[in-house]
Amino acid sequence: MSVVGLTRRRALLLGLAALPVGYLAWSRILAGDFGGPALNPAQAHAMAQAGGLALIDIRRPDEWALTGIGQGATPLDMRRKDFDDALAARVAGDRTAPIALICARGVRSARLGNRLLAAGFSNIRDVPEGMLGSGAGPGWIARGLPLVTG
Prior knowledge:
InterPro entries: Rhodanese-like_dom (IPR001763), Rhodanese-like_dom_sf (IPR036873). With 150 residues, the chain is an alpha/beta fold. The protein has helices at 3-31, 41-49, 61-67, 83-90, 107-118, 139-142, and strands at residues 54-57, 69-70, 73-75, 99-102, 124-126, 147-148.
């Protein structure tokens, strides 16, 4: 094999070896580490049922239709242009009210949680397991927590 062939092979192998590291770095940047406290789904459910916080499911309507919504959660699509206003209305304008965010796997909730903290909501919590599970744990559905459908 020629020197050029060996060089190309080494470059390809090095590039392939770097993919996992690049993906991890990209996913950290995309999700961002949440700057506030976290709850597991069982804690979020119990607190929402007791009236101790507003649990907000920030996924899309098609995701709600596919899996259902966690009992006690309010569906509020994070893509809404008036999301901040709708969230403030949900907590009667009290930006200090405890709010927990849940999405499918914890990526969107972490990112949105950081944005809401910067926007003046001071008591945001994340449910990083999400509905479907993540590296943080099995998620709402796998834990067998109640769902509301329809």
